[in-house]
Amino acid sequence: MYPVAVVTGSNRGIGLGFCKALLQKNVHVIATARNSVKGSNVVADLQRESPNFRFFPLDLLSYESIQRFLLFLEDNYRQLDILVNSAAVCPQRSDLFALQESLQTNFWGLIYLTLQLFPLIERAGSARILNVSSGDGELCYFSTALSSAIRNCFTLHMLVDFSYGLCASQTTFGKVLICRSCS
């Protein structure tokens, strides 16, 4: 059985790059994106390369969308070995509503989805959570370092609070890897 990975924000950029890299490692990839049309275009290309690829539309601003995605995963997969949180928005405006949209997607959506996926992650026994983003995906009005620190610290806090028995280690890129064993 192949390891299973979920990659959010996979219709372009870092998320798409992770999809391609994971498929080369014989990982079963479930790609997500809020834009179904763009996601479907990526699906067509990657499914020609590998049968281990599926797409599911996921909008981190929508509770209903996240719930549909969770039901899909529970119905089709026993566990989740890798979660790559790459989905993000970069509003082109600089007002209070842009900040709200950025925080809702790039932070709260990531946190809520990760919390909901913990039972599947725990079943894997040796799972990984990667919070990644480009400069465009950082939290509006925050520096890149602060933005990454906020997301990663909150992810670690959730792991400790919910006693999932997971631990964390820093990568050379400053991103947090969450795993069952840090050896």
Descriptive terms for the model:
single chain; 183 residues; alpha/beta; Rossmann fold; 5 helices; globular
Structural class: alpha/beta
Q: Characterize the largest beta sheet: strand count, sense, and whether it forms a barrel.
A: 7 strands, mixed
Overall pLDDT = 77
Which strands sit side by side, in order, in the main sheet? 3-2-1-4-5-7-6
Shape: globular
Tell me what portion of residues adopts beta-strand conformation. Answer: 15-25%
Low-confidence stretches: 160-183
Give, in order, the helices and strands: EHEHEHEHEHEE
Q: What is the helix content?
A: 40-55%
What is the tally of helical segments? 5
Quaternary assembly? single chain
CATH classification class? Alpha Beta
CATH homologous superfamily title: NAD(P)-binding Rossmann-like Domain
Measured between the Cα atoms of the first and last residue, the distance is 24 Å
Number of domains: 1
CATH topology: Rossmann fold
Return the CATH architecture: 3-Layer(aba) Sandwich
Question: Could you give the count of β-strands?
Answer: 7
**Rg calculated over all Cα atoms:** 16 Å
Keywords: NADP, Oxidoreductase
GO molecular function: oxidoreductase activity
Family: Belongs to the short-chain dehydrogenases/reductases (SDR) family.
Protein name: Short-chain dehydrogenase/reductase SDR
